[in-house]
# Entry
Amino acid sequence: MPFSKASARSILIWSAFSVLVCWTLGRPLVVLLTATENETVIANALLNLRLSTACFFPLGALFILRYSMQAMGHKVLPVLSSTIELAVKIVSAALLVPALGYVGVAVTEPVIWCLCALFLAVFYVTIGHQKQPAERHTAG
# Structure
């Protein structure tokens, strides 16, 4: 089975490290990288940084599921999850961002990661672990 426990372990370790760094050193890192003391800029950057890194766990699962399913010959579902990502981004830009402002921007990507990881996990558990037969090419 292409699903790699080593990959999952690596993602868990990296995600935990990223969350720890961003929650403990996020503010000084934002100030260093943006060269600003503007509280609005810092607050928005911290919001985005903390929400995003907190969702590295489902993002890692999304990557593993997407690539595992592709490796097993399930090509349509990973592409469909990418299409869902794009559709949610369009809906968010049209509805969520005007209503919530920057908070809408900050929550969109992590929510998409969670939704798509859940979408692919359902299919991986039900059909994804079965390798698709290789396509036959006929000479003609």
DSSP finds five helices and no strands in the chain. The chain has one domain: 5-128. Residues 27 and 35 are 12 Å apart (CA to CA).
